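User: Please predict the structure of the protein below. I'd like the answer in structure-token form so I can feed it into my own downstream comparison script.

Assistant: Understood. Taking the following sequence of 784 residues as input:
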Amino acid sequence: MQFSEHWLRQFVNPTLDSQGLSHALTMAGLEVEELEPVAPDFTKVVVAEIISAEKHPDADRLQICKVNVGAAEPLQIVCGATNARAGLKAPCALVGAELPGFKIKQAKVRGVESFGMMCSAKELGMAEESEGILELAADAQVGQDIRDLFDLNDKLLTLKLTPNRTDCLSIAGIARDVSALTGATLALPIIHSVPASHTQQLAVNVNEPAACPRYAGRLIQGVDANAATPEWMVRRLERSGIRSISAIVDITNYVLLEQGQPLHAFDADKLQGGIQVRYARQGEELLLLNDQQLTLSDEFLVIADDQGPLALAGIMGGEASAVGDTTRNIFLESAFFDPAVIVGKARRLNFSTDSSYRFERGVDFGNTVQALERASQLVLEICGGQAAPVTEVLHQLPERPAVRLRLSRLNSVLGITLDATLVAALLKRLDFQFKQVADGVEVTPPSYRFDIKIEEDLIEEVARLHGYDNIPALAPQDEQRMLPSSESRLSRNSLRDSLAASGYQEIVSYSFVDESWERDFLGNANAIALKNPIASNLGVMRTGLWAGLMETLIYNLNRKQERVRLFEIGSAYFAEDAGYREVGRISGLAYGSAEPEQWAVAAREVDFFDVKAEVDLLTHGRAQYVAGQHPALHPGQTAQILVNGQAIGWIGKLHPKWQQHYQLPRSAILFELDIEPLLQSQVASYVQVGKFPPVRRDMAVVVDESTSIQALIDTMRTSKNTLISDIALFDVYQGKGIAEGKKSLAFLVLMQDTQKTLTDAEADAVMAELLDLLAQQHGASLRN
């Protein structure tokens, strides 16, 4: 919202300079994004009249002008402008004047004395380009300072408004806020009802009262469409970023800026029958004022006559009914449209208008007729004509329910104490209607404040009027004490430290993924869909963290990073009958060589067992691995991870089809675990250190090829023999001497007694017990 400071000060003029006004607005939540002068500084430039202009004797393109600047004697000025002529009024920079970039001095031009300079708009910094000297109106007062003539001491303020403050999309709305903030007197334009000069009216039929609860219009006959727009109005429009078009259009734009109410003027002679407010019929066509030809659908609200659509309601008028130079009779429209009907429609058509910007945020439905009366006043003053009575169609307007503000809640949120008298005074400055209740006040928001809906909105209003600067910034005070920390539970940082120490780098990715990813990569056909996704490829909540890892891998590969180690700690989301479930996960990815390139280690690719070692660290060696199938992983190199018999995740090599899909030169190894079981830790307990040497025995057994090694180890560990301290596999053999379909597994068994040295008989008994367990449960036999 850009506007002229001087225009604002005609409605409210606080005792603040431009910087002070800018600061006050910003601190009240109306951020001033820019404050700049309308023209650069210059001095001693006045309105002058050229009395005579004669050709320079020694230069074809120069003229010697006698110029009246309001002094006792006219000045002699040499001028090279082609439009310099006797009787012309134009700006004249006197000797000593300082213009943007240079200073005016008395000089000789081709032997002729010159006592000043006739100025163009470019030389005064009022335009980027100009031809000839700036021509002024014939009634401009000779000798008047040009800065006063054009009001060049004005400044432009640009507000960066939040979407909820639609009331400040007008000069009147900003003035109301400035008056409330500073206590300065508010003097808005006095709007009288225009007396009717005739009784002819257009019939208005609102077919969609929910979409258009209020519609008002007035027929004005005999207007002069070619009347000149007053200079003051043109100046205010241009300083608000709107160019002057014609008097009638300028008036509607002026009232839009002044009152915040969009208006539209139809050429009444081009209308066929009365006005209808309805939804477009499928396939109807409309040529807009911006020359865009539309084929409408039934989701667009239109203003129509008996022949078809005339305008897109609340967005833009049509070319067929536009006012022009030959217009004699106009129909002025002012309406309130439901914001839900207008929102997004202009953007869908790839443009935006000042009207749609306001209507889709909500305009003051209490000011619809007043704005129409204001526009009618200006039309009659500038263009003449005879006005008819206002035709108004009124239906159910939006309700403005009362909002209760509790003093206890106000003081609790702000952290200061404001009494009821002060709060009432602040609300009166806002011109809010309210009544005192037992625990505070009950406020009925005015029609122009769509943003006042809940108690917190009123707290914000009181805070900004009281002044954020007046709320002390107090540091919070609280008792500091150590929080309890259980040794049986680890922190997530311990997991981060473990992977970071192994060369992994943490990433943070979106919790939203593409639906096809969930369906194809993770096998989830019941992903949680977002109602308002931030992008088309981020439409559902993830049930796994691999999507972010894969995207980051590809990003790094595209930047020539050939060895990648990534992990992420985040949440996965699941839909259930009772609602939704969120599960914490830790996920990792390894790609490229097993070790950084170096001379001491032979190069090889990272494999399943490298990553399995990282998982063992995260699970503190409690993990069990069971062959499984996962849609994202290689069918022969995939394992489900169990801790204490409960499935907590997956580990495996990326499926070849996904490697091909992502055009990866090598495959990646992935893992993902539920994080909660990893945080459970056993409390350290004392174990007596043995003083006697351990005994190692090796045992090689033959079992079926399909028998799991882990199953054999788990079986041996079921032995309750306290002499056993460790069991581990150290050899696997298939080949000569081993029957087909069989394999030989060699285990080491460490035994130790803390009280004495073990005898061979005791060690033999332990080995026999273990062999017996393997034979009974797995059909194992001792290898010969």
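That's the full token string. The mean pLDDT is 92.
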